[in-house]
Design a protein that fits this description.
2 domains; eight-stranded mixed sheet; seven-stranded mixed sheet; 21% strand; binds S-adenosylmethionine; RlmKL-like_Mtase; THUMP_dom; THUMP domain-containing protein; tRNA processing
Length: 492
């Protein structure tokens, strides 16, 4: 056990320089939490924060980030957010930090800054959060282990567009993401065993790294320079050990022109991978899937389909979050269908192991979207991620596929109330196909997103009250016979 030392700021610190929770009492104070979200979905994430945490989120100039204040006794609620990729607690924010022109002077200022920052509250939140994560891990039966692929199954592979850089990106985070239910009212005060474990850990020297994320063309230094020099000063100040891969604390240095935010990560692995264990070539981020679903406001008893489900990111996310709707996941590719089934089974097993009822309101089926085995006017909501024609399908094929899809989706979707939220990067082809739908769909709005570096659109459509099959456009057959199921080529 470590002996607390009183410091000049009046706080007690362990030998490893972590603020001490005196007498096991929970200190309640307000902190600012930052979250990275899929770009374009900042407003959706802010809305979720308002709903689940009752806090007003501020959207940063730096696209893809939101900030909100929370009292530390409500800290557990941040892990209920589904639209955030990474979470961090703010140490200090500067709206208009004046970087000196020369690299030497700018770096010297950053080094000095490290010892002047108000670290104590942020480190206390980091400590509370570790305790929370341990409890969540225990409740689910120990460390969440990644499933080994069964014979004949694909090994899980990382989702598209993920980076794993050591000092220049913030794409790092969270350990135990998927927490479907039962955590309301969860506090951060732990058991005595937990406290002992934390104290034991507190006596070991902490390992840390600094991750710098920089944007702006007026800086005389790179993100590597800033991470290295600021990191050196942090090391000196706290006497922590630098470790780029096995770190306890990740200090974040976000520089966006003259806006500087220093934070401490609260998640180790991005939450966007929370529910998927069997990845495919174009697996969608769970956070983006959640944002798309939120755009159509699912209601109790809604029938929601993802007719091109791939690995099932959208229906998996939806059936966990909106348990009173019913989801159908379909794809014409047998490998995609079996990945979806595996992903659903994995979540159900985890729920069962955690003591909850295993069922999710979702079914999986192999089908061709251009000929859905469903009744006309039977679906409330369609949410899907269409082949962009880059990694999946081809641009040429999209000219036939998109009009057929839109027409068949209009047939099954309820006139007057039905909605569709469709993601594609092939905007030209999509707009053309939509304009030829004979007024069956009305575009409500478009959210522009970044998907693995590609500029894509999420198109929110409303099914008009027009009857299907009454205008020349909707009865016109596709230009070519539709492709048979199973004919997709998957690129790895
Ligand atoms: C961009 S991927 C969807 C990725 C998915 N959101 C995920 O998270 O894995 C598009 C999917 O459309 C499927 N697809 C293409 N043409 C189809 C058709 N005519 N009917 C059904 N699915 C089709 C492909 O097999 C592919 O899995």
């Amino acid at each position: 056990m470590s002996t607390p030392n009183e410091s000049s700021d009046g706080n007690l610190y362990t030998e490893a320089n972590i603020p001490v929770n005196v007498g096991g009492k929970l200190s309640v104070f307000t902190v600012t939490i930052g979250a990275t979200v899929p770009t374009g979905f900042e407003h959706t994430a802010a809305e979720e924060v308002g709903e689940k945490i009752e806090a007003d989120a501020r959207i940063s100039k730096d696209r893809g980030r939101i900030y909100f204040q929370i009292s530390t006794d409500k800290l557990h609620l941040v892990h209920h957010l589904k639209s955030v990729d990474n979470l961090f607690v703010i140490v200090k924010e500067f709206d208009n930090y004046q970087f000196k022109d020369s690299k030497e002077e700018a770096m010297s200022d950053l080094q000095q800054l490290a010892s002047q920052l108000p670290w104590a509250n942020a480190l206390e939140v980091w400590r509370m959060n570790n305790s929370l994560k341990k409890r969540r891990g225990r409740r689910r039966g120990g460390n969440a282990t990644k499933p080994k692929p069964a014979k004949g199954e694909d090994a899980p592979v990382p989702a598209m567009g993920e980076g794993d850089a050591v000092v220049t990106t913030t794409e790092k985070v969270q350990q135990d993401p998927d927490a479907p239910q039962g955590e309301e009212g969860e506090g951060v005060r732990g058991s005595s065993q937990e406290e002992e474990e934390l104290e034991d850990e507190a006596s070991k020297p902490l390992k840390f790294r600094v991750t710098c994320n920089r944007a702006g063309d007026k800086h005389s230094f790179t993100s590597n320079d800033a991470a290295r020099d600021f990191g050196g000063a942090v090391q000196e100040f706290f006497q922590w050990k630098a470790d780029m891969t096995k770190f306890d604390v990740e200090v974040l240095l976000n520089i966006h022109n003259s806006e500087v935010v220093i934070g401490i990560a609260l998640t180790e692995e991005s939450l966007h991978r929370r529910n998927i264990t069997h990845f495919g070539p174009t697996t969608l981020r769970s956070t983006l899937a959640y944002g798309m679903l939120r755009l159509c406001k699912p209601q109790v008893s809604d029938v929601i389909i993802d007719p091109m489900c791939g690995t099932g990111a959208i229906p998996v996310e939806g059936s966990i979050e909106w348990q009173h709707s019913f989801f159908i996941a379909g794809d014409n590719n047998d490998m995609a269908v079996s990945r979806t089934v595996n992903n659903i089974n994995h979540i159900q097993k985890k729920k069962q192991d955690g003591g909850s009822a295993p069922g999710l309101p979702v079914d999986t089926v192999q089908w061709d979207l251009c000929h859905l085995p469903m009744r006309t006017n039977s679906v409330d909501i369609i949410v899907t991620d269409m082949p962009f024609g880059k990694r999946m399908g081809s641009r040429k094929k999209n000219w036939d596929l998109y009009p057929s899809c839109l027409r068949e989706m209009a047939r099954v979707c309820r006139p007057g109330t039905g909605k569709a939220v469709l993601l594609t990067q092939d905007k030209k082809c999509f707009s053309k196909a939509l304009s030829r739908m004979g007024g069956l769909w009305r575009k409500v709005h478009t959210v522009w997103v970044n998907v693995g570096g590609l500029h894509a659109g999420v198109f929110v459509l409303k099914r008009t009250a027009s009857d299907y099959g009454t205008t020349p456009e909707d009865v016109r057959p596709p230009r070519e016979a539709p492709e048979a199921p199973n004919n997709n080529k998957e690129e790895q």
